[in-house]
Specification:
about 425 residues, alpha/beta, eight-stranded mixed beta sheet, 14 helices, 17 strands
């Protein structure tokens, strides 16, 4: 009898949570597309096969996503646990299929919808986002917090439970200096990294519009147009967002050399969602018939490609502004939370943005007007930062994620014991854990 061994590698079973690729909020779907694109780059570079499951996704059980350079197969799994005792009881009694799915993952990447690991949107959303972290800890799953805004935790409950979750994470990555500093203050001994938003990795096709006019993209936020989810100036803005929007459109449309596009980034399509940009776009189109309404994009790559064709861009949707910045379009973000200030002001050292919380309407408008007048300067500044700081941070992120994956490989080694006797092969495949 002859015995010999063949070592092969199983695919790594990757879970991605809180980044729904089918979300009507293209910022959320951008996180999913970008993370998958990043992971596929690592997969090809390291010659490691990944299988992907998107948790808390609204898509079909099995699907294929086109990432321009790659076409990948994914699985989608809903997430019903919202942090309450009732939903936990339901999961414990009826959700064994979901628990089994979770138990099979080699690694979980948690991106928290980019900015929802906080209680800025209310304690219910925090409980849902944090609840998954608690469940995964019970299952002893290795979890990485992908670059995101962390905090603020304003309530005692959020601060206590959020701090515990951060402490138990295998790896904590932030996308801005404010979040980095915040985690350092909460947990001085916890290793945390300041990196960059994963949307900087998302591919696009440069949109070239054949026109001699200056193309200006104005991203309208239905969330701010409606006064937040509560309708009563939820984010305590000093700036009157509706007034600022109308002043902006009056200014740009008064010059016939400009071509103004109204661009949405949360598009409900046939769904009723409270922060839909589309309804606000239609209202503004009636008031400003010369403005051009951008199409309803089917995915974030389409949106980024369209925005890449602008000569100037302003808006209050975070990932619409990242789409502009990452494609070298001069952009004037409108900040309604510290996620903007942290990324653009602190991390990117890009001081051309309007702080809607602390500044009056006319102050923001005048600053935006000044940014437009020096847009070529802004473009050069962006181009330089992308080539230096952003490039460096992207490399750091790839290395950190690659190292986490590399550490998992010994557990994925499959040893094939091959027995050869009188022309008969018997193969067994015990997994080394």
């Amino acid at each position: 009898m002859l015995l010999f061994f063949i070592n092969v590698m199983k695919p790594l079973n990757i879970g991605l949570i809180w980044a729904n690729p089918y979300s009507s909020n293209l910022g959320v779907s951008a996180l999913s597309y970008s993370t998958l694109y990043l992971l596929e780059n690592i997969s090809k570079a390291k010659n490691i096969k990944f299988t992907y499951t998107i948790l808390a996704s609204s898509g079909p059980k099995n699907d294929t996503l086109n990432l321009l350079d790659y076409t990948i197969e994914i699985k989608n799994s809903p997430w019903d646990y919202n942090g309450s005792l009732k939903s936990f009881t339901k999961l414990a009694i009826l959700g064994w299929d979901k628990i089994y799915t979770l138990s099979m993952f080699d690694l979980i990447f948690d991106i928290g919808y980019g900015d929802s690991f906080a209680d800025i949107y209310g304690i219910k959303r925090f409980r849902k986002i944090n609840g998954s972290k608690w469940i995964l800890r019970l299952l002893r799953k290795k979890t990485v917090l992908l670059p995101q805004t962390i905090g603020p935790f304003s309530s005692k409950e959020a601060k206590k439970d959020g701090t515990t979750s951060i402490k138990k994470m295998h790896l904590v990555l932030t996308r801005d200096k404010q979040s980095y500093d915040y985690v350092q203050k909460l947990l001085p001994g916890k290793k945390v990294y300041e990196l960059i938003d994963v949307a900087f990795f998302m591919p696009y096709k440069k949109c070239l519009k054949e026109t001699l006019k200056t193309k200006i993209g104005v991203n309208i936020s239905g969330l701010l147009w409606n006064g937040g989810y509560t309708g009563d100036n939820q984010f305590h803005l000093k700036t009157d967002y509706r007034s600022l929007t109308q002043k902006t459109l009056n200014y740009f449309l008064s010059d016939e050399k400009n071509e103004v596009y109204l661009i949405g980034h949360v598009l409900g399509k046939n769904q009723e969602i409270p922060d839909d940009d589309w309804k606000a776009l239609i209202q503004l189109k009636e008031l400003y018939p010369k403005a051009i309404v951008a199409p309803i994009f089917t995915n974030p790559i389409e949106a980024k490609s369209f925005i890449s064709g602008m000569d100037f861009f302003t808006g209050a949707r975070m990932h619409a502004c990242i789409a502009a910045y990452s494609t070298e379009v001069p952009v004037y973000p409108l900040a309604y939370s510290r996620k903007f200030n942290g990324l653009f002001g602190n991390t990117l050292s890009y001081n051309h943005y309007g702080d809607l919380v602390n500044l009056e309407t006319d102050t923001v408008f005048n600053d935006m007007h000044a940014a437009f007048q020096k847009r070529l300067q802004l473009k050069n500044e962006i181009k330089n930062t992308l080539a230096t700081y952003v490039c460096q941070k992207k490399s750091e992120l790839i290395n950190l994620m690659s190292n986490v994956i590399k550490d998992l490989r010994p557990k994925q080694l499959v040893e094939q014991v091959v027995q050869h006797k009188q022309g008969t092969l018997n193969i067994t495949q015990p997994t080394i854990n």
